[in-house]
Amino acid sequence: MRQTYMAKKNEVERNWVLIDATDVPLGRLSTVVASILRGKNKPTYTPHVDTGDFVVVINADKVILTGNKAEDKMYHRYTGYRGGLKSISAGELREKNSRKLIELSVKGMLPDNRLGRKQFTKLNVYSGAEHKHEAQQPKTLDIKEII
Which secondary-structure segment (H or E) carries 19? Predict the structure, then answer.
């Protein structure tokens, strides 16, 4: 009888992937990034082991928000004090901190546990075209072919 393959933590081989977010819808970008961070694109995917790759996203300020999301979609956070609900629209957040917009979107697609927090640390988002991970020699992924 054949056993189902389960990856071990020390057997996982991690690569670096570079994704250009220019003119890509936010949701489509986030689903691809979250899938790569979890390792679902690999044949060795194991749900309880971090088998994903490192992801570098560049040009975060050029990501697209379709429909009326720039005005209608709201992000809320609570300061911890009474009346401390802070809200910002997706369009304002893109102008103010485009990195945070992509990070929030991807983080919402990862598991809400220790494993999801560990997988999220492998995400690197940059507003412009320059990044500091040339030494890792990331492979460029053309996301427009996938979506």
Answer: strand 16-20
The two tokens of residue 141 are: 């992924």
Using one digit for the tens of pLDDT, what is the confidence trace for 88-100? 999 999 999 999 9
Structural domains in the chain plus CATH codes: 15-146 (3.90.1180.10)
- Strands of 139-141's sheet in order across: 123-125, 54-58, 16-20, 139-141
Coil, strand or helix at 140: strand
Q: How confident is the model at residue 1 (pLDDT cuts 50, 70, 90)?
A: confident
Q: Cα(49)–Cα(86) distance, rounded to whole angstroms?
A: 35
Segment 47-90, tens digit of pLDDT = 999 999 999 999 999 999 999 999 999 999 999 999 999 999 99
Residue with tokens 């492998």: 122
